[in-house]
Amino acid sequence: MTTRPEHRRGRRRVAHRAPGPGSPDPGAHLELGAHLELGAHLEPGTDPGPGTDPGPRPRRDTPRRLARPAQVVSVAVLGGLLAAVALQDTPPVAPAPPEAAGPDVARPDAARPDAPPPAAEPRTPAPSALGELLTPRPADVSDPGVVRGPVPLPDVPTAPATLQPPAPAGLDLALHPTGDPASPWVVVNKALPLAPADWAPAGLAVVAGYQVRPEVAQPLEQMLAAAAADGVGLTLLSAYRSYDSQVRVHADLVARVGQVRAEEVSARPGYSEHQTGLAVDVGSTSRPDCDFQDCFADTVEGRWLAARAGEFGFLVRYTADNRAVTGYAPEGWHLRWVGSDLVTEMQRRGVTTLEEVFGLPGGPDYR
Q: Cβ(277)–Cβ(307) under 8 Å?
């Protein structure tokens, strides 16, 4: 009996009837329909099953099947990049400290059960390759990987072959000549005799019974008075000596001590500072036995002169330190007046002789 199809709720109901001989199995139709329905979603090359014919595949799903593999590849590449960046930002793991020497030795860094957990130290992430690529480089900073040529050095002025002495500080050393016997700055030594040899000053003044140049008289009196005010008794033993007087003094000394010793402490005629009227010899009232002797420098008078004579324009002309320059043995009693201005300039320059301040020859040998 044939049953007419009924329509309910928009769906078609098919009535099943028992198969007869030679009739197809309705289950076979259902199985074939399922294969046809599923065959549209099978990948190429997939066998839908024996005895089934998938038939022509619909073409509307082709773009979707091509897009899915591309998405899988993109996700895999992106995941690899993120993993590489994460590995670069991870700081290296410090090696574990060595175990203690024995099982009973406690490690100092071992955590105690009751100890609070250590505070986490701030960690500065290591620069990553991605961060370096994204960080802008200043325009005025050169790339350290670029090898550049040598940088030219600025021109440096070369020092002169000979250094010039410093300029005088407020004092003109050419103010008075050094070769004129009448000059207060005349330099007389074994290499620089007076010219003429028998020269004599035009006028002389008297201080304590001894003759000196007029410009020396007042400073000498002031010095003697200042020493007396300090309880130091200075006496004058010699001052101006003429050429003839120097002949007698030098000859007498040579006769007593010999030529070599005499010329260490006494000048030949025409080579003596006493002949200029600018030099004096002083004595000690505390130790008269040290007059004209080496021990004079250790007397009260000798120490006072070494400390205060310069205030009045006098130099202790011959000392142990400048003997090679002046050519004479130390004479703490022999004073030469040059004026307080020149004494101050010599102290500023750190020199003790007229030869040094004026750049003139000296020494122990006569010329």
A: no
Cα 256 to chain centroid, rounded: 63
Chain segment 67-125, per-residue pLDDT in tens: 666 676 677 777 777 766 666 655 555 555 544 444 444 444 444 555 555 555 555 55
* Number of residues written out for the chain: 367
Into how many domains does the chain fold? 1
Cα Rg of the chain, angstroms: 60
Q: Which of 341, 95, 57 is nearest to 215 (CA)?
A: 341
Q: How far is CA 82 from CA 71, 79, 87, 324, in A?
A: 17, 5, 9, 89
Using left for φ > 0, alpha for ψ between -120 and 50, and beta otherwise, residue 251 falls in alpha
330 inside domain: yes
| Spatial distance between the Cα atoms of 51 and 32, rounded to a whole number of angstroms | 9
How many CA atoms lie within 13 Å of 293's alpha carbon, on the beta-carbon side? 10
What pairs with residue 235 in β-bridges?
283
Residue 127: inside a domain, yes or no? no
Question: If you average pLDDT over every residue of the chain, what do you get?
Answer: 76
Give me the domain span that covers residue 256.
Answer: 205-358
**Residue of 205, 224, 222 whose CA lies nearest to 213:** 205
Residue 172 lies in a domain: no
Q: Give residue-wise pLDDT tens across range 244-255.
A: 999 999 999 999
Q: In this model, does residue 312 exceed pLDDT 70? A: yes
Tokens (6 digits) for 129: 């390759």
Cis peptide leading into 196, omega within 30 of 0?
yes
Q: What is the Cα–Cα distance from 158 to 152, expressed in whole angstroms?
A: 17
Q: Could you please report the per-residue DSSP string of 200-227?
A: --S--EEETTEEE-HHHHHHHHHHHHHH
Instruction: Please report the pLDDT score of residue 231 as a whole number.
Output: 97
CATH of the domain at 236: 3.30.1380.10
284 pairs with which residues across the strands?
234
> Residue 342: inside a domain, yes or no?
yes
Indicate if the alpha-carbon torsion angle 63, 66, 69, 73 is positive or negative.
negative
